[in-house]
Design goal:
Layout (H helix, E strand, L loop, with lengths): L25 E2 L5 H11 L8 E4 L8 E5 L4 E6 L12 H13 L7 E5 L9 E5 L16 H19 L17 H15 L6 H9 L11 E3 L8 E3 L6 E4 L6 E3 L1 H9 L17 H4 L4 H12 L7 H25 L11 H17 L3
Antiparallel strand pairs: 1-2, 2-3, 3-4, 4-6, 5-6, 7-10, 8-9
Helix pairs in contact: 3-8, 4-9, 5-10, 6-9, 9-10
């Protein structure tokens, strides 16, 4: 990778709100290392202590830790403590899908073991291998040259296409989600979560909750949908534009693969102050593919097609993203989020909802 970008990246938008930085994990005392060590001796193949526990600072959902021994590094993901929404923080599902995909040859970290006994550390958790490589937090890829940027984005979209070519039945995930009516269930879920989360209300969110069900795409065969597929949820090879592992499967389910695709494409249209927004950038000079190029590459690779206008999918994903952030802010106010910046998420809900509604208006809403 080049040390300097040969194209200056400029963006006149205000500073990113609540950006996640690539921070090193820090020592922590919020897990009982002795109890955890005893559990790992019995559950994790090849484990040998002593054990050092460190915590990653980034992220808004499931607290994540690095576990170090003299020989090996692991990652632990847990449910946060406190009162939670019933469907949130499903680390058991995250473990299950990673375990199945890893056995099928898809790039995920090795999933060692799941612990549902809350007496060990206070909540359900699982342990996986730590994959060494690059996590790219800035979607503009300022440390790369144009050719490298294009190659990284092409690897990202090709890996998503590979995920959606996996037959869930063939790897034991045929029951990983309810069949049929995927978008109807998702719109209902995020509308309900938006309303259930304490906080302000937004007219655009209310309008979208009413409008989206009126234009639902037709059902199609279900595939494994990651639910939060983006650059900083994957580990790339240290020197090559190759995906070594896709991370953070908490929101995964069986569903319409176009939902995953258009969630990724959302980065091309989110407000410029959003982290990893590509809106307003000179993509040709940077070497970053356009939204249309990414879409065409995916459809050509999978042989799939859109079941509704692209604007509907973008409106849906922006609405869903806004509902998630609304929930993050609510957890921050309740003291249950694992990041002190969670409350700032509320500032992002309104602008995202407004952009979502603008796509609905293009379709006559």
């Amino acid at each position: 990778m080049s040390n300097e970008s040969d194209t200056k990246i400029t963006n006149s938008a205000p500073p990113v709100i609540d950006s996640v930085k690539d921070e090193a994990p820090r020592p922590t005392g919020d897990l009982d290392a002795a109890l955890l060590t005893e559990w790992m001796k019995s559950a994790v193949e090849g484990f040998s202590g002593p054990l050092e526990v460190l915590r990653f600072a980034g992220g808004q959902s499931n607290p994540t830790y690095q576990l170090r021994t003299p020989e090996t590094r692991y990652v632990l993901r847990r449910k946060p403590p406190g009162q939670l929404l019933a469907s949130a923080h499903a680390v058991d599902r995250e473990y299950r899908v990673m375990h199945a995909l890893g056995r099928a040859g898809f790039p995920v970290p090795r999933a060692y073991a799941l612990c549902e006994d809350e007496r060990v550390i206070g909540s359900v958790f699982y342990v996986m291998a730590m994959v060494e490589g690059r996590i790219l937090w800035d979607g503009r890829l300022p440390d790369s040259n144009p050719a490298e940027r294009r190659a990284i984005y092409e690897a990202e979209i090709d890996t998503l296409a590979a995920l959606h070519r996996v037959d869930p039945e063939a790897i034991g995930l045929g029951d990983y989600g309810r069949p049929g009516n995927y978008f109807a269930r998702q719109v209902a879920r995020w509308s309900k979560q938006y309303l259930a989360s304490d906080g302000p209300r937004y007219a655009a969110m209310d309008w979208l909750a009413a409008w989206l069900p009126e234009r639902m795409p037709a059902d199609r065969p279900a595939r494994i949908a990651h639910g939060d597929y983006r650059l900083d949820n994957m580990v790339l090879h240290p020197a090559e534009p190759r995906v070594l592992a896709v991370l953070d499967w908490e929101l995964s389910t069986l569903g319409d693969p176009i939902a995953d695709l258009t969630y990724l494409l959302m980065h091309w249209v989110t407000p410029p102050h959003e982290r990893n927004s590509l809106a307003g950038l000179d993509l040709a000079s940077l070497g970053i593919p356009t939204l249309e190029e990414m879409l065409e590459r995916y459809l050509a690779t999978t042989g799939d097609r859109l079941g509704a206008p692209l604007e509907w999918y973008l409106a849906y994903n922006l609405f869903r993203f806004a509902a998630i952030l609304h929930g993050v802010a609510a957890r921050g106010r309740a003291g249950n989020a694992n990041n002190a910046r969670a409350g700032l998420a509320e500032q992002r809900v309104g602008p995202l909802a407004d952009v979502a509604w603008s796509f609905a208006q293009r379709l006559g809403a």
